[in-house]
Amino acid sequence: MISIKEITKQTGITVRTMRYYDQINLLSPADKTEGGHRLYGEKELIKLQEIQFLKTLGFSLQAIKDMLENENHDWFSGLQNQLNYILKEKEKLGEMESILRGLLHEMVLEEQIDLLQLQKLIQIYQKDFHKREAYLKQMFDQEERKLLDMLPNINHGDPDTMEWIALMAQLKQHMLKGVSAPEVQRIIRRMDEKTVEVYGDCPEFIDKLWEIRKSPEKSQEAGFYPVDQELLEFVEKAFVIFQNNRKEA
Amino acid sequence: MISIKEITKQTGITVRTMRYYDQINLLSPADKTEGGHRLYGEKELIKLQEIQFLKTLGFSLQAIKDMLENENHDWFSGLQNQLNYILKEKEKLGEMESILRGLLHEMVLEEQIDLLQLQKLIQIYQKDFHKREAYLKQMFDQEERKLLDMLPNINHGDPDTMEWIALMAQLKQHMLKGVSAPEVQRIIRRMDEKTVEVYGDCPEFIDKLWEIRKSPEKSQEAGFYPVDQELLEFVEKAFVIFQNNRKEA
DNA sequence: CTTGAAAGTGACGTTACGTCATTTTGTATA
DNA sequence: TATACAAAATGACGTAACGTCACTTTCAAG
Q1: Which of A205, A246, B93, B212 could staple B218 via S-S, CB 3.0–4.6 A?
Q2: Measured CA to C1', what is the nucleotide nearest B18?
Q3: Domain range spanning residue B69?
Q4: Where are the transmembrane segments (chains A, B) (predicted)?
Q5: How far is A104 from chain B (nearest CA, A)?
């Protein structure tokens, strides 16, 4: 049994934090002295480490509490959701960064910067925002959602899906080399193999998938890994080459 | 002069927000009716737009207030500071993302995840980087270290790493079918291709890597992601078969 | 038994509003 | 003009994860 002071020494966590964790029933002391001083054991230290670790992943204390309390918590989904959340936040920051850089660049060109200048710049940037917003809102449709819901849990991180994504991303890297490059054709061959292995007896499903893939909006709705049009066309062309080569052989 | 309702209609900003801005003296109404209802003019609308815009850059309301109040505010420095701040935040999120990806990748390999598993993973991640660096330095020379950097690091979401993990995980699924099963051999062939693509003409390096991989202790010291022994042996055997088949062909 | 350090318990502050509950004002209609 | 109903106002509490007083009690050494 160690005192609260020992905890702060060993972990760097403040006394206040320990008391707070006790207060919200996230981590209670193993025991207390007669006078009410908190005493912690080895188990608590370990739990504290876990809490700290999960905090570095950006989870809220409430979420951490739920995770550690639920004996059969779905860690995979939990982490995936968190990853998605983090990615969204990163995207937001990315936009901020982009606008800030734009402003700073323009300010280098304009020599004098005051409120009036800024107002002009704001006008420009706000226009873009409104356009984007309008564009996105226009793309909503009820019927399309049903189709997407019928798809299996393709974004659930199973190895097959993962490889698909990995292969696509690799193709993107090799795009400059052209559809006939050996690396490209090897990847395409692997894709073909996987298509047969996984979806062999259900070609309609593949068609459906491909249709959604070809629509960026639908892909995004479905939570697919975003693939740009250029890449999709590249894949289609490379597949044609691949099939021709196979026929000749 | 327009009412608060008009403001919400035109800008989408809530009544509560307008009252709050009034309360903190960020944006006060131009006038009030006898009964105390807020009335805004064109100037206020513009200021409100500015506020909204600066908010999208991540500034706090207090900061925005200071900026708009100070007649000769140093916009350039202000924006630059904000950019730095944003970049730091992005970096933090990037680390979270990296760790999350690492965990998720490992979870694709392990099928069951519970608190005990997580504790093990936490142990690995909490290990300090210095130990790893030191260990790796002593094992590999300079040139090899360059290659080592290309080694699939489980934290990086790059396509090559993803495919490695996906292939490993798929192998695990197919283990029961034996080392000669066509699915297995196709995966092995793909692994071989990738090995050659990435590490090309340096087979000794691959041997050394493989040696570390086969020793759980060494792997852990090097900070590699954990792969169970059974799977590693399976891969080795399957590779032997693969190479024999190739010789015969 | 004293004494100073360490620990305890409230309580308030932080951000940018959301969400009641209650009261007052504005306005359209009978 | 009285009334009804919408809209606006005010005030208060809640949010997350503690930091920071202020004040009291307990612990351990001398």
Answers
A1: B212
A2: C17
A3: 2-73
A4: none
A5: 7
Distance CA B109, CA B231 (A): 10
Structure tokens at B22: 């009034």
- Find, among B194, B172, B174, B192, the residue nearest to B183 by Cα: B174
Does the residue B201 lie in any domain? Answer: yes
Q: What are phi and psi of A38, to 5 degrees?
A: -75, 140
* Residues A89, A24 share a domain: no
Total domains present in chain B: 2
pLDDT tens-digit readout, B92-110? 999 899 888 888 877 777 6
Alpha helices in A110-181 (DSSP H): 115-137, 142-149, 159-174
Each residue of B22-39: pLDDT tens digit?
Answer: 999 999 999 999 999 999
B94 and B67 share one domain:
no
Q: Are residues B94 and B69 in the same domain?
A: no
Residue B110 one-letter amino acid:
E
Q: State the Cα–Cα distance between residues B177 and A73, nearest whole angstrom.
A: 31
pLDDT band per the 50, 70, 90 thresholds, residue A156: very low
Query: Where a domain ends, among A99, A115, A138?
Result: A138
User: Longest Cα pair distance anywhere in chain B, in angstroms?
Assistant: 98
Would you list the DSSP string of B10-47? HH---HHHHHHHHHTTSS--SEE-TT--EEE-HHHHHH
- Residues ≥6 apart with Cβ < 8 Å to A141: none
Contact A53 B126 (CB under 8 A): yes
Nearest to A53 among B52, B115, B122 (CB): B122
Chain B CB contacts of A72 under 8 Å are 114
In this prediction, residue B62 has a pLDDT band, given cuts at 50, 70 and 90, of very high
Whether B84 maps to a domain, the answer reads: no
**Residues A125 and A168 occupy one common structural domain:** no
CA of B8 to C1' of C29 (A): 27
Compute the nearest-CA separation of B120 from chain A (Å). Answer: 10
Could B83 and A97 be called an inter-chain contact, meaning their C-beta atoms sit closer than 8 Å? yes
CATH number at residue B34: 1.10.1660.10
- Indicate whether B143 and B171 sit together in one domain: yes
Nearest of B190, B94, B148 to residue A83 by alpha carbon: B94
If pLDDT is split at 50, 70 and 90, which confidence band does B231 have?
confident
